[in-house]
Amino acid sequence: MNAPALANSNQETPGFPGISFGRSREGFPVALVGDNAFAMMSGRDGRHYLATGWRIARPLEKWTRSDFYGHSGELADEAAFRARVEENALHQQQRTALGRREISSRARTPWGTSQGTTVYADGVAFHSTASHGGFHLSPDRNAKVHPLLRAGAAWYEEDCHWAAVAHAFPELFTDSEMASAESTIRNWYPEAWEAIHGKVLLPGQSSTKDEREFQKRHVDDWIVVSAIRSDHEPGFTEVVATMGGDRSGKRGTRRYLVPSEEYGTSGCRFGFIIDEARHHLFEGPSSFAGWQGREAP
Q1: 144-161 residue pLDDT tens
Q2: Both 185 and 151 in a single domain?
């Protein structure tokens, strides 16, 4: 069931100080949490997504689509929009209560010189650099990280490995961050997740484990590694496929023509598999810049 329509006037939500809901000048749902702005935008095929902005210096009812630049995933309805906003409000509230400290730093990191450091606790610091960032732990803190997740040098990059720090020290992270850490470990470090929880991940529960299974099943299939709409064969997509999806092409490289409608709606998570009975081996002029024609094996 959809949530009740949001009024144009701002509405403070009990239990979440600093959060307001309303409608924009164009009529779509919007919300403000501190300096963070949110909107429920319409997309293609009747879908909606969460858009984000920052420090919009006007009342909610004067906000427009051009004020938003971030895309944070799909939304089912206004109830989902409200839930995402309230989740962010709680995250900010908890983060403030944790008392993290910002300090200046020029420490050396695996990603370059630190341009700033957030101290989560003694021995737990997050460094930001011009290109990347991550956590650094003191030796005693690092010893408490699960062995299957522990980094020998005590550096944990921000994309995935940071989740090992959150798992080891949940008291230093918000509920939202802990949920993200659990998902990250499950998807990217399935062996560690299974050891921690004493459970076996089933198909569909870990992207990394699913991809490994896919590669095992299709090691002797031609899998697409690159694709482009054909300039020479209308209605077809020209693809480059390698045996087992090996991007080095050591086991062979071929070009095929695949109907564009089929290729665009295949929904293949880890690679489009060539059906040699239906997809035509292609040796004609290529739409790939710089392609050197090769004879099919």
Answers
A1: 999 999 999 999 999 999
A2: yes
> Residue 271 falls within a domain, yes or no?
yes
Q: Quick check: is 213 in a domain?
A: no
For residue 147, tell me if it sits in a domain.
Answer: yes
Number of domains into which the chain is organized: 3
Q: How far apart are CA 153 and CA 249, in angstroms?
A: 34
**Per-residue pLDDT tens over the stretch 231-259:** 888 999 999 999 999 988 889 999 999 99
Q: Are residues 87 and 107 in the same domain?
A: no
